[in-house]
Write a structure and sequence with these properties.
2 copies of one chain form a homodimer.
Chain A (H helix, E strand, L loop, with lengths): L7 H11 L1 H6 L12 H17 L2 H11 L9 H17 L2 E23 L3 E2 L24 E2 L4 E9 L5 H9 L8 E5 L7 H8 L4 E5 L2 H4 L21 E2 L37 E4 L1 H9 L26 E22 L4 E11 L7 H23 L6 E8 L7 H9 L1 H7 E7 L5 E7 L4 H9 L10 H12 L2 H9 L14 H7 L4 E8 L13 H8 L4 H19 L8 H34 L1 H5 L21 H20 L7 H12 L22 E4 L3 E6 L1 H8 L3 H30 L1
Parallel strand pairs in A: 3-7, 4-5, 5-6, 6-8, 10-11, 10-12, 12-14
Antiparallel strand pairs in A: 1-2, 1-9, 4-9, 9-11, 13-14, 15-16
Chain lengths: 752, 752
């Protein structure tokens, strides 16, 4: 149902009377909020102070406890119950709430077998033990055992080859060792690259199966005490996770590009290109040790050695394993909770705020720690609305299902509602897991100034300085050289560019909706991710005791939502965007320059035969393969486009607030502003993966979650397709020009 | 006995007749050997070809097998036998051979006890197991069990504190964690700094005892397969070694500065400042694991974690240990074998060539692999002499005893013969352990050009290119940035500057005799160093199969010895010396600049309180302590002196070979040339450690073996005594001026 309400501007004046005491107690900036004038800044700040008062960590704790009682993956009865309970809460607070359903393909394990068959025998347990210290771990109703979703079925037997993290550079080094994956089973460490990349690349190299394990050097006893003595990975803990080829397209594997509604046209499973080509299974380090210990061949390079008390070898063999996997390829229903509060002034401008609700297990950290913060915000915003301060724009909460197997709930909804979203969506703001630590802000750089202001207006619960100040302190002490320098040279903290890994992907990269992802992180580390041990007990002891950062997240994300909903002029800003693009272009120039120099030097060294002299002739590591020389690339088109954008962006900033626009023109300006992000997309998408439309941000085709900025150019350079890179420079330049033209059009309107 | 012989010049002509075929088979440089003219170059090359023919790796293998049959430390019956057998060999080949004896203090273990007393109990085995695969390990006659020589006696009990490698920077970090060593027992990893530094610094910080263990991440299973499957450290292997405070003075602890002859004046033991202040014991990683596993306190920084399958903690405690050590403080006899071949032309100019014979155990690698190469050279040189090509200068072989406990045999002999050595010694050339790999050349930079020529004239046994070429290939591929660049920009490879760790120290740093240290290394790694497993079996399987590099070492060191002995004009060269000093001065300037900038930034950060914001408030790591600002230092005196030296050195190079000197003047020039290194010393020595006289090279007072170039200045900067650093700049400038004046005096002579 929709609630009737007056416009937000009039009611905020009333609110200001009763909360002035709170305002005095908080140190807020004297400057205007971006997109607000002096008067509306004041009322907005009063609204935010009132909002803060409604955020109660104890309530988040109750929800966290309740929703994390049982495993609740998509397709489970418990998952459906959570969706219904979330919907009931939202409805109760006054949101127009629906559960929107999609029918999706979800493989679950039917058979899992991993055996070392020679030179000795070992059968992997493939199970995680319950702990007396953590009652939740005994609650295993509907528990999915450790597996990688969207592994293909298979029954293979072969010698093991250790591939480190399974990244392109790891395969390059393996080749120098003369170790082939053809007909072998790869064993890879979790980490450094997204898990789905590991079997994808291994299969390309000829492997017939892939095992992925969590090495104790990465999140086990090497890093710190293990659960339950500490937060790090229990010896039997296994990271579940999807290995769907999300860098090609995420979401339901059978319905790329369209919503997986009941009657949607579906691919046949055998034609779904995002299912792996070879069987993949995740295991614990306890199960990995006997396999690794049985391996021979060359000793791994020192940097590849992990934390098990053995010598790591590359193989192949003599360890031979059998890997047998069979899945139930069932259609299940994903339950997205969609809760709307219609905007009082601009009902057709939508601010979308999302977090998923499905977990691989109990999912206390992932996703519930973020979800309970979202609930707290939603409740507080509804209270404000009911007290007479409804949002000016429509706020839509999306509580997604089926994120874990492949961002499925959000992707299907985004695809299903693509036309409306492209027209109406102002921005998408995502959260997911949360923990104690520092504010981590990623997103569209047109919102960089905006989020910096938000971060300056919320205090860190541990140090009582603003989140921005604490984050800058961290960058000053622990950042890389550039980041350290920028803490002095640059007022704002850069947003990190978004790759993939959570539900912002369909909004940002498929639809071109300006997006952000917010979380706290850095002080609640551990090894519970996607294991049986991601429980309420683990979370509240090790990750965010008292949910102090749940409260902070609600304050940050809620404030951002409210500002986006209420700003008289939308807070997009292009100088910071251009500044980040300038950095990315510089990175591209440095990248190709470095490749050229390294290739040149290496080819000279190969000509001179000095690798043969420098390498130990009794070892198998050989000289690298010769690479074609790297040409110079013409970056001028891109830099000229950037220069035009910079000038235009500066001009836009100078005009803000100088003009009084009619309500109609202001609305037109706002619409043109939120459509700026669409200009960064092209309908034909990226080469080889047309689902991805954005030309500034994409997940790496060979890194997975890791972002590739200006991906067309960057990835062409990385795979040494320099002609293609040259073409992509022109395309990227056109994309920037398209944004520049949009800003120029806005300037024309505001100049009238 | 001394052999009668004609002068080398006449006889070499004869030699050339019979070995011309060999010359054709080898690719030798067309340029003159430094110090030789065209004619004498030719005869010298012929002599060297003949020399090479006499080097037989099979013979070295026989000696290695024989001398490594039993443990043979100083004071053992087996050690005395080796000295006698070496003396017999030398005598048999025609050398004037003496066993020169010194009476030295040697502590050996009487009682060793290490117990974990709480929270659980464990008694360390403190022993190494014999292996069926290695018969030598069962031969334990006179075996010294694992201990650190010159640990003081003690019986202490206290909580453990983990100090990583026990370096100054490790203690600085421990202080930031608020962990005090007062009244605690430190447990340190072997490696990164010399072992004696670990208890020295720990004691300064208030520790009452120190345990040192070899972590498997450094030379155990993490690095490669362990013995006997591979070369790396067996789980019970313990690195013995001296912890005498050698950076203060090496040699017999009771007779600093004088030879430990029977009637020498001796300190009382309690006044010997180089005995540790607290008890120290080395243990295996097998014994270390229960101790480390019982520790609590903060988790160590990630970089401190080792390779045991546990979480490492800093402590203090709760693990509490009792460490009880008592030693037999016995006087033993060190047997140096001194074998001389009097020079035919310049008998009063001495070329000294040394390698020790005592080992901690069987000592196959350390020191016998170097010693058998020395024997091969000595035999070949004697053969040449007996065939009519005796050395022009006197060659003295020193086969030292008691190197392991503290360079005692060589130091006592050098101190005992100081007056003669200062007058007559041309150079000291050292070897010690050897293995397969790359030529490692350290030494006085006045010999850099000389050793580069030697390395260019000997082929690598594996790749059949010159040793220099292979070394440059390694630097090009695996060197640091400067080294990589220099492989193209600089014709010669830099000698590494000598710190300490073998018998060159008394010659170079106490007496100012130009010295060098030669070895092959880099492809024969392992974990046998100073353990029971340094056996013939280990060495010939893993470190230098077939002793191919024993042969190469004999060729290199023998060639260097012959050239130094025969060069008409001694091959000292000063442009390379000045070039290296220029590098060191640049390092000093960079060092203080870096300290200044880091201090400045850190003090600003401390003023701003941003450490408190950046650090996790629930963890014990706190902000660093404020440091006084770093002043600018006046390097001009040193740089002006360097400039004068550079001009003079260039001038010297231009004059070489342009003058025909009388035999008498040539002798005078040569004497002045080899006295150049003396000019780099000052009688009063370094501040706080007057035994060390050299002002360009010294072992680090807080790093041990690691060299500190221009040590007066560098160490003053490092410990932030900037006034003292300023004074040391002037002293270093004077030292360089003194060398410049000596070269100018030579120029005056050659200009006549």
């Amino acid at each position: 149902m929709r609630v009737e309400h007056a416009s937000w501007t009039s009611l905020l004046v009333k609110a200001s009377l009763c909360i002035s005491g709170i305002l005095l107690a908080t140190s807020v900036s004297a400057e205007n909020i971006t997109g607000f004038d002096k008067a509306s800044t004041q009322t907005q700040r009063q609204l935010e102070a009132q909002f803060d008062q409604s955020i109660n960590p104890a309530e988040q704790d109750v929800w966290l406890r309740k929703f994390s009682q049982k495993p609740h993956h998509v397709g489970s009865a418990a998952g459906k119950v959570i969706a219904e309970e979330v919907a009931d809460l939202m409805k109760g607070w006054g949101y127009d709430t629906e559960i929107e359903k999609y029918e999706i393909l979800l493989p679950t394990p039917k058979e899992r077998l991993l055996q070392l068959v020679s030179p000795n025998q070992y059968t992997a347990s493939l199970s995680e033990v319950s702990l007396a210290e953590d009652a939740s771990t005994a609650e295993q109703t509907e528990l999915l055992p450790p597996y990688n979703a969207f592994s293909t079925d298979g029954d293979v037997e072969g010698e093991l080859v250790f591939i480190n993290y399974g990244r392109p550079e790891d395969h390059a080094l393996l080749e120098r060792y003369g170790v082939s994956l053809k007909g072998k089973i790869a064993i890879a460490k979790y980490g450094k690259s997204w898990r789905g990349i590991k079997p994808k690349l291994a299969a390309e190299k000829g492997a017939i199966g892939t095992i992925i394990y969590s090495d104790p050097a990465d999140d086990g006893y090497v890093v710190g005490d293990t659960y339950p003595e500490g937060p790090y990975k229990h010896e039997t803990g296994v990271q579940r996770g999807s290995v769907m080829d999300m860098p090609t397209y995420p979401g339901d594997v059978l319905t790329p590009g369209v919503g997986a509604t009941k009657n949607a046209k579906r691919l046949k499973r055998k034609n779904a290109s995002t299912i792996t080509k070879i069987p993949v299974l995740p295991i614990s380090y306890k199960d990995a040790q006997p396999l690794l210990a049985a391996m021979g061949g060359a000793t791994v390079p020192r940097e590849w050695a992990g934390g098990l008390p053995i010598t790591y070898h590359l193989g192949p063999g003599p360890a031979k394993v059998r890997l047998k996997l069979a899945f139930n390829w069932d259609m299940v229903t994903a339950y997205n909770v969609i809760a709307r509060w219609e905007g009082s002034t601009y009902p057709n401008e939508w601010v979308i705020r999302g977090n998923h609700h499905d977990g691989w297990n109990h999912g206390a950290a992932d996703p519930l720690s973020g979800m309970v913060a979202l609930l707290a915000e939603a409740k507080a915003i509804a209270q404000l609305a009911k007290m007479g301060s409804p949002p000016a724009r429509t706020i839509i909460y999306g509580v997604w299902d089926a994120e874990e197997p492949g961002l499925i709930g959000s992707t299907e909804w985004a695809e299903d509602n693509a036309t409306d979203l492209k027209k109406h969506a102002v921005a998408y703001l995502n959260t997911d897991g949360n923990s104690r630590g520092f504010l981590s802000m990623g997103g569209s750089h047109t919102l960089e100034k905006f989020f910096n202001q938000v971060a300056a207006d919320v205090d860190d619960p541990q140090t009582n300085v603003s989140l921005k100040k604490r984050l800058k302190a961290r960058l000053a002490i622990n950042g890389n050289k550039r980041q350290q320098a920028e803490t002095r040279e640059r007022s704002d903290v850069r947003l990190y560019p978004l790759g993939s890994g959570s539900d912002y992907t369909p909004f940002l990269q498929h639809l071109g909706i300006a997006s952000a992802n917010l979380a706290f992180s850095g002080e609640g580390n551990g090894g519970s991710y996607h294991t049986l041990y991601d429980t309420y007990e683990h979370f509240t002891r090790w990750r965010d005791p008292g949910l102090a950062y749940g409260e902070a997240l609600a304050r940050v994300a809620g404030r951002a939502t409210l500002r986006l909903a209420n700003a008289p002029q939308l807070p997009f800003e292009f100088v910071a965007f251009a500044d980040n693009v300038a950095l990315y272009i510089q990175e591209l120039e440095n990248l190709i320059e470095k490749m050229r120099e390294e290739t040149r030097v290496q080819n000279v060294q190969l000509d001179e035969g000095i690798f043969e002299l420098a390498l130990d002739p009794t070892k198998s590591l050989k000289a690298p393969t010769r690479q074609a020389e790297v040409p110079h690339l013409n970056f001028a088109p891109l830099k000229n486009s950037l220069a035009r954008l910079q000038v235009t962006a500066e001009k836009y900033n100078r005009t803000i607030g100088n003009n009084t626009l009619s309500a109609k023109d202001q609305m037109k300006v706002n619409q043109m502003l939120y459509l700026t992000e669409r200009k960064l997309t092209r309908p034909q998408g990226l080469t080889g993966r047309s689902w991805y439309k954005h030309h500034i941000y994409a997940p790496g085709f060979y890194t997975g979650y890791g972002v590739k900025t200006i991906p067309g150019v960057r990835e062409a350079i990385e795979i040494r397709k320099f002609d293609e890179a040259g073409k992509q420079v022109t395309i990227a330049a056109e994309v920037l020009d398209s944004l520049t033209q949009q800003i120029q059009a806005i300037l024309k309107l505001t100049a009238t």
